[in-house]
Amino acid sequence: AGGELFMQLEREGIFLEDTACFYLSEITLALGHLHSHGIIYRDLKPENIMLNSQGHIKLTDFGLCKESIHDGAVTHTFCGTIEYMAPEILVRSGHNRAVDWWSLGALMYDMLTGSPPFTAENRKKTIDKILKGKLVLPPYLTPDARDLLKKVPPQPH
Description:
This protein is mostly helical. It is built from 6 helices and 3 strands. It has a 3-stranded antiparallel sheet with strand order 1-2-3. The longest helix has 20 residues, at 17-36. The N and C termini lie far apart (36 Å). This is KS6B2 kinase.
């Protein structure tokens, strides 16, 4: 263990559901902790998640975080990595900590399928796919995984 989650995902292609569940649980706790302090992370992606020697996650690269965002507050900065960016960031309608949960849904999809849910040959087409929000679930996903992916963003808000 150790290193970037990205490299682990590259090596394995996809994660087994138990492995994905472990990482996603720890990421959920990390995001919840940040949110409880009024911080939106805004750049959740495999490259920004490190694994320590015991295989536990650590979020890195806090450069795009926004502080002092509590209930009801929004921010309008266009930032993040397109494939993991929530629709409200893309359309600049104002966003809050919900964007981190959207990114978590995209990351979950990536872990279970080997790529983010909305990708295309260029940025504009990727953005269009995100805004349309038609999620295609591969048939090999278990009913539990399919159900969870349907409930968690990346469905547009």
